[in-house]
TrEMBL record, chain A:
Biased composition (Basic and acidic residues): 296-327, 340-349
Protein name: Actin-related protein 5
Species this chain originates from: Macleaya cordata
Superkingdom of this protein's organism: Eukaryota
GO CC, alphabetical: nucleus
TrEMBL record, chain B:
Subcellular location: Nucleus
GO cellular component, one term: Ino80 complex
Record flagged with keyword Nucleus: yes
SMART domains: YL1_C
Full protein name: YL1 nuclear
Keywords: Nucleus, Transcription, Transcription regulation
Membrane-spanning parts: none
Entries under Pfam families matching the protein: YL1_C
Keyword Iron-sulfur: no
Originating organism: Macleaya cordata
InterPro entries reported in the protein's UniProt record: INO80C/Ies6 (IPR029525), Vps72/YL1_C (IPR013272)
């Protein structure tokens, strides 16, 4: 410290009073002596001069990063019995900032350090009894609401959309109509161009065909090689294709099927010709034609079947309808009964297939199934048979095969006995039919769903537009919670006693006691430092100290005249005092004896504190 | 803070007439190694408190001892007295409503709440 002063600032001498310790109240002026010392001590001295506190007393200094309690006996600080807790105004602000940003994660960017500090200075107060005050907030009645502070963040209400006027609607409709018109026009243009294209192609092909008639048989391949077609048939088929697509484009009915029907014999001319009369090429062609014919016939058959089924269904429906008209109630009842029966049947089959895990359905849903559970009932039965057959040896006389039924076993064991039969499928189809019919007729009918409905469907929070309330930051308990850490530092994880208990600790540590000294000290307690500006601080301290002190001890807590600047004023007064020049430590001394001498002289306590303060406060003077 | 204020050098003038060596001379801008701050721990270590007499007050031995009262437990979310602790997150809570909120909290927030009272799990 001294090094800093002498080397950097070229100060002629440093004044140290016995209470000089660490808060650097530098009266820096070029080539002037300076004084440095403990802020609390300077502040206490200053207030003593003002008559606010007595010569025996106690200074409670709630600083930025630390809080100190220093007792004074006959005007001099007793450093042996001072104590320090590492909690201060910085921690209060930080706590408030963190709490608010955790409470309102969306507004984290609005809660800056400066804002938190402002909020702290403006709205935080010390509760006389924290527990009861908090209970008040917890109840959340009117009183708590009155005590809560609401900070409205800048918020602009979203523009409310007025319902569009008639004009607007008409205008929009017109635009839509216009666009539709344009699209239709585009489609029409496309269509006509396509028709043109196809027509020219058709003309070209027909022209080619006419030309082909004038060409001799042998010249056909060479003639056709230019056009890209191989044979006359191909050209013809191309013509057919083009005409069809032309018709399609023109919107005429395509009667392809009917047209091709009579052509069958013409289409497959080679099928009826015996093989030995054909060349290899023609044979290949014949095979192709045969294949084509069978497939087309198959398609035809399937179509026929579908048609018949349709007819059948129609017939059934008609019958049903008749029945229904005869006796609607009875019919409905029957239908219901049938539906029930069928659905049970289907259900049972399903259950069998899935190994009856429907009964303990949760297992099935969870998906965690072992190997055994993956097999269906039939497969399981097969496995059982196999294992019994494997171990059924040498147990008396082997009579296997004596009876006919024994051989059925092999059938059961064989792998492909998974009866994938049509029965259940039919059932299912019938069930579907009845269900749909019931849905048509009976408005009360609700088809049972296969899927087990998930019980706890978590309702998604509905999206709602942001309101003014979403941009409010409410300070409720935080108002008292944050300053409370000065009294209960373990709220922020600092395992030390709070301000009120520190007084007790300090008094306990006093080297000389008795003669009513404690009473005199407690009747002149001075609060200084920025953090004691919280409203209710003095009352709380008094309550806290009363709890530690004996019954009916005199207790008087006063606030410094200006808690923030009094330390500086005290130092200034000291430096201006008459005794200052005697108590100084000059530059010559420093050069002569070095820094360590200074340290040994008085400042063993003080030295590190100075440095620490400087390191914390981003030294402005270095 | 407003940029104009910072730029106008009101807060910290570049030239301090009472200093022998100006800050800008000592640590010219653009120099690789700027000034470095000592941490509290470093300073304390340099000071060598073990060599001092134990009955003399110094920075280390004037610290306040832990409180004599049993520490009260407060709800991490609402700040009211907390009779319960959530075993999963280790957060203290006051009632069922808060408990519901705790269970909805993402882990990051849980850790931040715990860090507020110095109880967060720090993985190294």
């Amino acid at each position: 410290m001294a090094e800093l002063l002498f080397e950097t600032y070229g100060i002629p001498s440093v004044g140290m009073c016995s209470y000089s310790k660490f808060y650097l109240k530098l009266l820096v002026h070029h080539r002037h002596p300076v004084a440095f010392g403990v802020d609390a001590a300077f502040s206490y001295k200053y207030n003593q001069q003002l008559g606010i506190c007595d010569k025996d007393g106690l200074a409670i200094s709630a600083g930025l990063t630390t809080s100190h309690v220093i007792p004074f006996v006959s005007g001099e600080p007793v450093f042996e019995s001072c104590c320090r807790t590492n909690v201060g105004g910085y921690h209060v602000t930080d706590y408030l900032k963190q709490l608010l940003s955790l409470k309102y994660p969306h507004h984290m960017s609005s809660i800056t350090w400066e804002k938190a500090e402002d909020l702290k200075m403006e709205h935080c107060y010390v509760a006389q009894d924290y527990a009861s005050e908090v209970r008040l907030f917890q109840k959340g009645d009117n009183e708590a609401e009155e005590k809560s502070i609401c900070w409205q963040l800048p918020w602009i209400p979203p523009p409310t959309e007025a319902p569009p006027s008639e004009e607007e609607i008409a205008r929009k409709a017109a635009i839509k109509e216009k666009q539709g018109q344009r699209l239709r026009e585009m489609a029409a243009a496309k269509k006509s161009s396509r028709i043109m294209e196809l027509e020219t192609e058709l003309q070209g092909l027909e022209f080619l065909l006419q030309q082909l008639e004038h060409v001799q048989e042998s010249d056909i391949p060479s003639f056709l090689s230019e056009t890209g077609y191989v044979s006359k048939q191909e050209i013809e088929s191309a013509i057919v294709r083009v005409t069809q697509s032309l018709r399609k484009v023109k919107g005429e009915q395509v009667e392809m099927e009917e047209k091709t029907e009579p052509l069958t014999t013409e289409k497959y001319p080679l099928i009826d010709v015996p093989d030995n009369m054909l060349s290899p090429d023609q044979l290949k062609e014949k095979r192709r034609q045969l294949f084509l014919k069978t497939t087309s016939e198959g398609r035809q058959r399937a179509k026929q079947k579908r048609f018949e089924e349709e007819l059948e269904r129609e017939r059934k429906n008609q019958q049903d309808e008749e029945k229904r008209l005869e006796n609607p109630e009875l019919y409905l009842e029957q239908l219901h009964a049938k539906h029930r029966e069928l659905s049970e049947k289907v259900e049972q089959r399903k259950r069998l297939k899935t190994n009856g895990s429907r009964s303990n359905g949760n297992q099935n849903l969870s998906g965690g199934v072992g190997r055994g559970e993956r097999l269906n009932a039939a497969q399981k039965e097969r496995m059982r048979l196999l294992t019994t057959a494997a171990f059924d040896r040498g147990k008396g006389e082997d009579t296997f095969g004596a009876r006919e039924e024994d051989w059925q076993l092999y059938k059961l064991m064989s792998k492909d006995n998974d009866d994938d039969d049509d029965g259940p499928d039919e059932d299912e189809a019938e069930l579907a039919r009845i269900t749909s019919r019931l849905q048509d007729i009976d408005p009360l009918f609700v088809p049972k769903l296969d899927v087990i409905p998930v019980q706890a469907v978590t309702e998604l929070p509905k999206f709602r537009p942001l309101t003014k309330e979403d941009f409010q930051i409410v300070l409720g308990v935080e108002r008292i919670r944050c300053p409370e850490i000065l009294f209960q530092p373990n709220m922020v994880g600092v395992d030390q006693a709070g301000l009120d208990e520190m007084v007790g600790v300090s008094i306990r540590r006093l080297p000389t006691k008795g003669n009513g000294l404690e009473e005199r000290i407690t009747s002149s307690i001075l609060m200084t430092g920025g953090s004691c500006l919280f409203p209710g601080m003095a009352e709380r301290l008094e309550v806290g100290i009363r709890m530690i002190r004996p019954f009916e001890s005199p207790i008087r807590v006063v606030r410094a005249s200006d808690p923030i600047l009094d330390a500086w004023r005290g130092a200034a007064a000291y430096a201006a005092g008459a005794q200052f020049s005697v108590q100084t430590f000059s530059r010559e001394d420093y050069y002569e004896k070095g820094e360590d001498w200074l340290r040994k002289y008085q400042l063993r306590v003080l030295q590190p504190m100075i440095v620490i303060l400087l390191s914390n406060q981003s030294i402005r003077f270095s | 803070m407003e940029t104009e204020v910072i730029e106008s050098n009101i807060l910290l003038p570049q030239h301090l007439s009472f200093k022998r060596v100006q800050l800008s001379e000592k640590y010219p801008k653009g120099q690789a190694r700027g000034r470095h701050w000592k941490h509290l721990k470093q300073i304390l270590q340099v000071e060598n408190y073990q060599t001092y007499l134990p009955n003399e007050p110094n920075y280390v031995n004037i610290e306040t001892p832990p409180s004599m009262y049993p520490s009260k437990k407060f709800c991490d979310i609402t700040g009211s007295e907390a009779p319960y602790i959530d075993p999963r997150t280790n957060l203290r809570y006051a009632n069922t409503d808060v408990f519901k909120r705790i269970r909805m909290l993402p882990n990051e927030y849980v850790q931040r709440y715990l860090a507020l009272r110095n109880a967060a799990v720090v993985l190294k």
